[in-house]
């Protein structure tokens, strides 16, 4: 048995981080692919799934010559660093059949994007947090708003709900799916 204060996780718990992840698919069984991606991320020993949004049928953005998407978001608690979590999500994408993207913003079996990691701001060669385009994408904002509309963007200083309400592009079709 440890002396008080020595390796006692009740005294010095490992910090847990709140992370929002966007999930999407526009190939194959889209909803099943998204569910599989969420469950595989949540199966990691250092991750706890705390909320999942409804699924949405969404129009493609940027590269529009492709099938419609299914998108959702989920919130996790984790002790993993942002880069370690990115390694996990990349491994899940690969395991679920997502190879190298031939076309940027093109078709994908499974796409997992880290959107927020607490209020942290990260800018590296392979990761940018908050996600740099999330505030312009209804298919990201709506599902996160379903989970936590008051969550504040650490750089823009406004809530997810405010970002969604002020989004200018009405061309982004987002329709809730009862699944």
Could you characterize the architecture of this molecule?
- By secondary structure, the chain is an alpha+beta fold.
- The protein has a single domain, classed as 2-Layer Sandwich (Alpha-Beta Plaits).
- It is built from four helices and eight strands, in the order βαβββαβββααβ.
- Strands 1, 2, 3, 4, 5 and 8 form a six-stranded antiparallel sheet that branches. A two-stranded antiparallel ribbon has the order 6-7.
- Strand 6 and strand 7 form a beta hairpin.
- The chain is globular.
- The relative contact order is 0.20.
Rg (C-alpha, Å): 17 Å
N→C terminal distance: 49 Å
Low-confidence stretches: 1-5
What level of helicity do the residues show? Answer: 10-25%
Largest β-sheet summary: 6 strands, antiparallel
Structural class, judged by helices and strands? alpha+beta
Highest-level CATH class: Alpha Beta
The CATH topology assignment is Alpha-Beta Plaits
Morphology call: globular
Classified in CATH, the superfamily is: 7,8-Dihydro-6-hydroxymethylpterin-pyrophosphokinase HPPK
β-sheet strand percentage: 15-25%
Q: What is the arithmetic mean of pLDDT?
A: 88
Q: What string gives the helices and strands in order?
A: EHEEEHEEEHHE
Number of domains: 1
DSSP summary: helix tally: 4
Tell me what the CATH architecture is: 2-Layer Sandwich
Kindly state the number of beta strands.
8
